Amino acid sequence: MRYGFSVVRLGLAAVAASTILISAALADDYPEGCVDCHVQTQGAAVDFRLNSLLRQIGHPRVDRLKTIPTACNRCHADEGGGEDDGTPKFSQLIHIVHFDVPRTNTYVQQFGGKCQHCHAIDVDAGEAVVKSGERNW
Three-class SS of residue 37? Predict the structure, then answer.
């Protein structure tokens, strides 16, 4: 009988350990996508918040945008806009910015260029979706 009890305890321990490992694997360190990475770090030489970076390249003000990157589609829409009016499509633009020159690109070097930082899986729809979050400026 003692042997049977040990097997049950071992089985329960294995289930608990696998649950912990699965939970850790599924943990999302960047649930709000852009705004989770694009932050101002105390004492850093560069302010990585999106409004600051966009200002540096002469982009029009984005102070009124509330949800990032969802609100970016107002001008950078994939359907019914984008390149038709000279504004690049967001889906193309964002991938170029984050993967251009991978050997020196901050996103690739510091974050491994992982899709899960920006995208989540909608299990019900069976598709990847873009994560969004409330602006951080």
Answer: helix
126 and 107 in one domain?
Answer: yes
pLDDT tens digits, residue range 115-124?
A: 999 999 888 9
* Structural domain that includes position 6: 1-29
**Residue 50 and residue 9 share a domain:** no
Please give the Cα distance from 7 to 37 (Å, whole number).
Answer: 45
Please tell me whether residues 21 and 64 are part of one structural domain: no
**What's the Cα-to-Cα distance from 107 to each of 16, 23, 95, rounded to whole Å?**
35, 25, 11
CB atoms within 10 A of CB 18: 10
Asked if 7 and 57 sit in the same domain, the reply is no
pLDDT in tens, 55-72: 999 999 999 999 999 999
Contact predicate 35/66, CB 8 Å:
no
As a whole number of angstroms, the distance between CA 97 and CA 37 comes to 14
